[in-house]
Amino acid sequence: MKCETMNSVLTFVLGTFVVLGVLFAVRAISGQRDFRALQFGAAQSQTGLNQLMQLNSLVNDTREYGKLHPSPEITRMLDALQAKPATR
Amino acid sequence: MNDSEINSPPAQGDLSAQVASLQRQVFMLLLVLLVVSATLVAYLRYQDYIYHKDAAAIRPQAMQIITTFNAAKSGINQQGLQDFLKQLVAYGQKNPDFAAQVLKKYGIVPAPPQPAAAAPAKPAAPAPAAPKK
């Protein structure tokens, strides 16, 4: 009788652990997804920002080149770009 | 256990001993299972804690980068930019000096201009070295 009670208690505790295990597994998976999504989004955005900075630098270099070697074509290109700014 | 043991009716005392032995086994197995599941639960709890902590740690920075990029991207005229790049490449084809000084720095290599059909085939002269800025 005593053994049966003990088994019941153990089974109950085991059941509780199973429920907790499932709960923590779901939470861990959700946390992992969240973390990965943030990492991926930040990496993508960082790459995009780097490209934008490069683009900005290209525009500046073109402007500098246009100052050293004045050309109506460069001026026209830069004016067209400034009319609708490409970068902030 | 062989056939004779299964088929012959066991004595009452033997049966009780077997039941007691099975109860002990079940108890031991439950205990082992409990220890294993407790370890698993502890591990999953730890993983949950670590991932949430890491996500919380990078969230402000990541959100800042994503917001900055989205704001920058929204202010871009994609079509205008494409046109500008095309014009730059076209200009670089006509002006090798510009291609060497500016475009090359950004990995933009304009295709060489198409040679005239009547012109005799000659090996392309090496591009002049880009003067240092």
- Which assembly state applies to the chains in this document? heterodimer
Count of strand segments of chain B: 0
Give the strand content of chain B: under 5%
Counting helices, strands and paired strands, the structural category of chain A is mainly alpha
Specify the helix fraction band of chain A: over 70%
Helices and strands, with pairings:
The complex is a heterodimer of chains A (88) and B (133).
Chain A: H1 2-68, H2 72-83
Chain B: H1 3-7, H2 12-74, H3 78-94, H4 96-103
Helix pairs in contact in B: 3-4
What features would you describe in this structure?
The complex is a heterodimer of chains A (88) and B (133). By secondary structure, chain A is mainly alpha-helical. Chain A has one domain (2-83). Chain A has helices spanning 2-68, 72-83. Chain A is rod-shaped and about 100 Å long. The model of chain A has no long low-confidence stretch (mean pLDDT 87). Chain B is mostly helical. Chain B folds into two domains: 7-74; 77-110. Helices cover 70% and strands 0% of the residues of chain B. Chain B has helices at residues 3-7, 12-74, 78-94, 96-103. Chain B is rod-shaped. Chain B starts with a helix and ends in a 30-residue tail after the last helix.
